[in-house]
Design brief:
Keywords: Hydrolase
Radius of gyration: 16 Å
InterPro entries: 4-hydroxybenzoyl-CoA_TE, HotDog_dom_sf, YbgC/YbaW
Number of strands: 5
Number of helices: 3
GO molecular function: fatty acyl-CoA hydrolase activity
Protein name: Acyl-CoA thioesterase
Strand order of the largest sheet: 1-3-4-5-2
Family: Belongs to the 4-hydroxybenzoyl-CoA thioesterase family.
Shape: globular
Length: about 140
C-alpha cells in the first residue's frame, strides 16, 4: 500500500463547501501514479515507449464528506496484476481523525496508442510485480 498526503483545495469544493465527487477519481490517480513510481516505473516513460494504461472500470463509494483545507491521505493498494491489466483499491482518509471519506477501485488495461491491448514487457512488468508480490506477502 502506498500512502500520499494531499490537502483539499478550494477549487475542489462545490457551493456547499464539500469536495465535488469527481475529485475522488483524481485522488485515485495520484495514488496509482505514486504506486507505480514507488515500483520504479514512470508513467511518462511508459507512454514514450508506447504503453498506455487507460481506465477500463472505476467505482467509488462515498462515506463522509471532505471539506476545504482538510488534509487527506490517499491509500492505493494493487489487488490484481497481470501483463495486460492492473486493479487498485483505494481509501481516502481525513488525516486529523482517520475517518474514511471514500473507498474505490479502478481497473486499468495496458494498451498501445491504437487502443488495442498490449502486454507489458518484462522491463516494466518485473518492477511492478516485485512491489505487488511484496505487498501480497506482507
Amino acid at each position: 500500500m502506498i500512502a500520499v498526503k494531499d490537502k483539499v483545495r478550494f477549487v475542489e469544493t462545490d457551493m456547499m463547501g464539500v469536495v465535488h465527487h469527481s475529485n475522488y477519481f483524481r485522488w485515485f490517480e495520484l495514488g496509482r501514479v505514486a504506486y507505480l513510481k514507488e515500483a520504479g516505473v514512470e508513467i511518462l516513460d511508459m507512454m514514450a515507449n508506447g504503453y498506455l494504461c487507460p481506465i477500463k472500470d472505476v467505482a467509488c463509494t462515498y462515506k463522509n464528506s471532505a471539506l476545504f483545507d482538510d488534509e487527506i491521505i490517499i491509500e492505493a493498494t494493487m489487488i490484481a496484476f497481470t501483463k495486460v491489466k492492473m486493479v487498485f483499491a483505494y481509501k481516502i482518509i481525513r488525516a486529523k481523525d482517520k475517518v474514511v471519506l471514500a473507498e474505490g477501485q479502478t481497473t486499468n488495461a495496458f494498451t498501445g496508442a491504437d487502443g488495442k491491448v498490449k502486454r507489458l514487457p518484462d522491463s516494466y512488468f518485473g518492477k511492478i510485480k516485485r512491489l505487488y508480490d511484496e505487498e501480497q506477502e506482507g
